[in-house]
Amino acid sequence: MLQGPELRTIFLGMDQKRDELLFSSVKGRIRSRIGACGCVYQAIDINAIQKAVMRGGSTPTALMIAPGTKGFPADLNKRFPYDPEARKKLLAEAGYPQGFEVGLNAQRSLRQR
Questions:
Q1: DSSP letters for the chain
Q2: Local confidence band at 75 (pLDDT 50, 70, 90 cut-offs)
């Protein structure tokens, strides 16, 4: 097996075009996209993903471009923290006090690790 550095970005994106979020318990449009997306963002333990899924071979970033890219704006690379309590509050404010379920798909290369 050949291992070495590579430059790619893996991200979680929610389908905001459809009238209904596929593979979720939400029926109809998500009431507050900002609140729902914000709570999903703060529910992601990026350090656990970096350790368990990526096996320590990644650098978490807050941006859609990798830190090794020419012109990477390091001053903008600030993630909101993993915060389950803030997530619960944002969900309630978005109209989902009990939360909601959603299925996620991963790239084949990630599932095979």
A1: ----------------SSSS-TTBS--SS-S-HHHHHHHHHHH--HHHHHHHTSTT-----SSSS-TTSTT--GGG--PPPP-HHHHHHHHHHTT-TT---B-----HHHHT-
A2: very high
pLDDT number for residue 24? 85
Give dist(CA 93, CA 100) in Å, integer.
13
Q: Nearest-CA neighbor of 94 among 13, 15, 39?
A: 39
Q: Rounded to whole angstroms, how far apart are CA atoms 50 and 58?
A: 6
Structure tokens at 50: 């970096």
Instruction: Kindly state the tokens that stand for 58.
Output: 């990644």
Mean pLDDT of 10-28: 78
Q: Tokens 């550095």 label which residue?
A: 5
pLDDT (tens digit, 9 = 90+) per residue, 41-67?
788 888 898 888 888 888 888 888 888
